[in-house]
Structures are given as C-alpha cells and as structure tokens.
Amino acid sequence: RLLKKKESNKIHLYRKSIDLLFKIQNIKQIKIKNFKGKNYQVPIYEENKLFKEAKLFSDWYAKKYILKKKLPTFNIEINKQIKFLLSNLKLKNDTLVHRDFHVSNLMRYKKKFATIDTQDALLGNRAYDLASLIDDVRFKSNKKLKDNIYNYYLKLNKKKINKVSLLNDFEITSVLRNMKIIGIFARLAARDKKTQYLRLIPYAWKLIELRMQNNEIFHNLKKLLNLNFSKELRKFK
C-alpha cells in the first residue's frame, strides 16, 4: 500500500527493501533448532527444483494454446531450453533465498522493513530474490526504476560480486521465475477457479521479453516462444 500512495518515494521504498535483502543474504546460520527442538538445516535450491518450477509453464499454460499433437515436441524443446539456462547459472548456491521476496510480502514495522512468508526459504542463488523484487509481476515498475534498484544492490555488494555473473544469473532467474508464475496463475485458474490472476500474465510476458531482448543466451528460447505464442496473446495493455 505504501508504493501505491501518490506521495510515496518509490526509489526510497525499494532501496529499503534492498537493504533488508542485503541483511537476509548475509545470514550465515543455516542450521537451527525448530520449535519442536529438532535440528533443521535449510535445504539447497537445487537445479532439479528450479527445473520443475519453470516446467509449470508447459504443464499448465502451454497446453491451453498449443495443439495436442504438437505439444509433446514443444515440451521436449522447452525442457531442453530450461535445462540449458540452468546449466549457465554462474553463482553458487550459498545464499539464503526467501523465494517470494516481492512487495506483497514486505511491510514497515516499527519504522523498519520486515518480510513475511519465509517458510519456503532455501539456500540458493543470490540473484533469485533480486529478480523477484525488481521483476515483480504484482507491481509494475518502469525500466528506469528497475535499473536504479539493481544498481543500488550492486553498490551494496560491490566487494562480493562479479558483475557479469550477477547480470547473467539475474536475467536467467527472472525469465525462469516469470515462466513459473505464468504456469502457477494458469493452474490457479484451471484447478482452483481463481481466474483473477490471469490478468497478470501479460505483464509476466513483458518481463520475460524485457530480460531476453539483449542477451544471446535466450536466442533459442525466444525463437521457440515466438513460434508458439502470438504477440496478440502476450500483449500487455
């Protein structure tokens, strides 16, 4: 709600969010005692899990628009591209990842920023939560603001991060995450009759196109998506 206020300073609020993310990503303790007194270790955000999440795109969304006889071939090709992108991630799985670090899960509490919905946290790629915040399908932001927040994150982490590797992983995780989101929203509509999320899909497409446009690593994925999903279908208004 803070971001929707006309008088709000969006850059200030997003920078506060990045400050919080910086603190989360500096948490080193991954083993704790849970409320039952049992040992718990934060699991790794393994490649196979990322693959299954991105695959929701074909499992729930693609099958609505691709002819049944063409779907098996499409699934083989899209899976190949997802695996290719995952194999090209550069950063280590050594950072606490919230997994849903976006404006809907952030709030101001006692003049500080806090987050909710942390139960699915894993140990993974530091670019994931950054992409989740900047390329958030639930809150539209322009390219200038996105770049400003990304550069602020870089400034905070300049001693720790290879800029080329971060950008590579940011774009890959953003694309795969938004493919996952399209799949989840399609599933919510088909399985749970929650059709209100369908209106967000065109913006998810826009975010995918934004991150693919200047990176050759997406050449084959872009070609595959353009061949099977029309611009009219993806159109963001």
SSE order and pairing:
Blueprint: H1 10-25, E1 31-33, E2 39-41, H2 47-54, H3 56-65, H4 71-87, E3 95-97, E4 106-109, E5 112-115, E6 122-124, H5 127-134, H6 143-156, H7 163-192, H8 201-212, H9 219-228, H10 231-234
Antiparallel strand pairs: 1-2, 3-6, 4-5
Task: Give an overview of the whole structure.
This protein is mostly helical and 237 residues long. The protein has helices spanning 10-25, 47-54, 56-65, 71-87, 127-134, 143-156, 163-192, 201-212, 219-228, 231-234, and strands at 31-33, 39-41, 95-97, 106-109, 112-115, 122-124. The strands form three sheets. It has a two-stranded antiparallel ribbon with strand order 1-2. A hairpin with a 2-residue loop joins β4 and β5 (112-115). α3 (56-65) crosses α7. It is globular. It starts with 9 loop residues before the first helix and ends with a helix.
Quick take:
By secondary structure, this protein is mainly α. The chain is built from ten helices and six strands.
Please report the number of helical segments.
10
Radius of gyration: 18 Å
Q: What is the first-to-last residue Cα distance? A: 22 Å
What is the β-strand count? 6
Q: What strand order characterises the main sheet?
A: 1-2
Order of helices and strands: HEEHHHEEEEHHHHHH
Specify the helix fraction band: 40-55%
Give start-end ranges of low-pLDDT stretches. none
* Global geometry: globular
Strand portion: 5-15%
How is the biggest beta sheet arranged?
2 strands, antiparallel
Structural class: mainly alpha
Calculate the mean pLDDT score and round it.
Answer: 92
